[in-house]
Each structure stands twice: as C-alpha cells, then as structure tokens.
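Standup notes
- HV: blocked on the assembly model, inputs below
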Amino acid sequence: MNIGEAARASGVSAKMIRYYESIGLIADAARTEAGYRTYDRNDVETLRFIRRARDLGFSVDEMTALLALWRDKDRESAEVKRIALDHVADIERRIRELQGMARTLAHLAGHCHGDHRPDCPILEDLAEGGPEDAVAEAATAQRTGFRRR
Amino acid sequence: MNIGEAARASGVSAKMIRYYESIGLIADAARTEAGYRTYDRNDVETLRFIRRARDLGFSVDEMTALLALWRDKDRESAEVKRIALDHVADIERRIRELQGMARTLAHLAGHCHGDHRPDCPILEDLAEGGPEDAVAEAATAQRTGFRRR
DNA sequence: TCTTGACCTTCCCATGATGGGAAGCTCTAT
DNA sequence: ATAGAGCTTCCCATCATGGGAAGGTCAAGA
C-alpha cells in the first residue's frame, strides 16, 4: 500500500511517516519503480506502535528504545519498565509544575473583583512579585526542563 | 544600565530581552552612541513583570495583553481576571491530559514483572492497543492543542 | 598609552514534532 | 486523452530559548 493508506491505517500522518523515516526512527520504506513508498501489514503495525507510544507522551528517543526492545525477543522486561516509569516520573513532574501555576493563578483570581474597577491583585502580584520562591522554582524547572512529549 | 545588568536585575536573559524587543513585546530600548542598549529602573520593572507572567505560563500574546492592561490605569479588572482564568483552564486541560497518560502507564507498569524475562504488558499494549479511546482523545487534544506556555 | 578581558552588537543556526504549501511527477478512472 | 487524486522533494513556520561566530566598545591595570 502507498503512504496515504498506511497513514489512514495507522493513525500517523503521511508527513510524520516521512519524518520518522528521515530521522531513522523507522527503516527506509521500499519504493515502487516510480519512487512511491510502499508499506505492508508489518510496517503498519510498527506505525501503530509508534502512534500509541507517542500518544502516551514518549519522545522519539524513547520510542527508538521501545521499538528496539519490542523487536528484541530476548529483552528484559525490566528495561521496558524502567523506561516507562522514568517517563511517568517526568510526566508527574510536569503535572506538579502546572499545578503550581494553576494554584497561584486561581488564588490571585479569587481575590480579584473582576468588575469595571481597575484594582487588580493579579497585576499587582505580577508587578511586585508575591511569594516568589514556589513559582520561581517551578519556572526554573520549566525553563531548563524537557519539552512536552 | 546595560543589557547584562538589566538581565541580572530582572531574571530575564539578555538573549530574551533582545527577542522580546524584536517581536514588539517591549519597546525598543534607548541606545548609547556606541549602539549599546540602556535600561532604567522602569524598564527593569517591566522585565520583572514579564518574567513573573512567563513563570506562570502565560504566552507572549497573553503577556502583551497583560502588559497593556498593567499600563492602562482605566482598565477593568474583569478583563485581567478573564485572561487569568482562561489560562488556568488551559493549564488544567494540560494537567488532565498528562494525568491520563500517567495513569495508563502506571497501570501498565504495575502489571509488568520488570525482571530478566521478556514478557511485558507494556509492549503488548503498545503493539495491540488496549483501551484506545481514552488515550486517543487526549492525544488528539495534545497534538492539536497549544504548546507549553 | 597600550593591552586585556569583559561586555556589547548583529546574524545565523538548532531545538521537537508537526503542519502548510509549492512545483512537479504518477496513477487511475472516465 | 484528460482530470483529479495521490505521490515526490524541498522549503518555511511554529514557540521560546540557547549557542556561537565575527566584530565593535569599554574600563581597569601595566
């Protein structure tokens, strides 16, 4: 099948299939004489694997590792589990960062009248900086930390 | 003061100060004869405002709006509150997405022996796709949704 | 006064995962 | 034969941020 059908069957866009090929996450696809990429059921299975891993927030690097383990019939499940749990820890860290922001903002908004008057504790806090530490800590982590997925 | 000192005083890197100027978030800085940017206490206050807003996850667009409101002494606090609460809603949506991923992964990892044997429910799930819907929904939201900050 | 080193300038490139779109070739159904 | 859908490669944009090169400026010390 061509790339469009593989995309539909796997849930990975044609654009991304080409991208994954270009960065070496998947092997170069076979080509027809005219240069069209062709995929078989096996390739689609791999793409589905990738899509599910991506949907769980794994990065391309993590997916590379998971794919290798998936193919390695002698793998140790401990390694898969380690990757998964590391990823969970990362996700939970991001959740804590976001919760810190939401908590601060919700608190500030709760003290803002939200009417036609200009007085606003939200702006006051941004200007003068309230309890700087909690926020600053999360912010530093966010700035230096990993990106989404 | 020069850009380096302003950066130290505000917590915004010199690189980012130039970037914020280039995109119009802040006004063009005054220059010395030699072309060096100069900043006064007022500019540093603005930069601090920006840093705190950024640390709370506001995007550049949101910061533009907040800065304008901060300067507008006739603002209505309702508008500030709206921006803040919209942002909180976005953050909470991201938190829910991440929680969905963490939940699924923690569940799978909980069923993985994590030893020398190759059997691994995590890989099995990625290969065959377990309860597809919950994850797929969050994933679609994530793919189509806004980025961090 | 000259040198050194810290600081500044602009410009270009990279990130990660993804989409948009143009120019041009191929295939299939009418 | 022609239309239209689908494929190819290539370039660009996102968002906020950092890295680094090439070169100009400034202040302190010899």
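- HV (later): unblocked. Strands of chain A lie at 30-31, 37-38. The first strand of chain A starts at residue 30 and ends at 31.
- Next: hand off to the docking folks.
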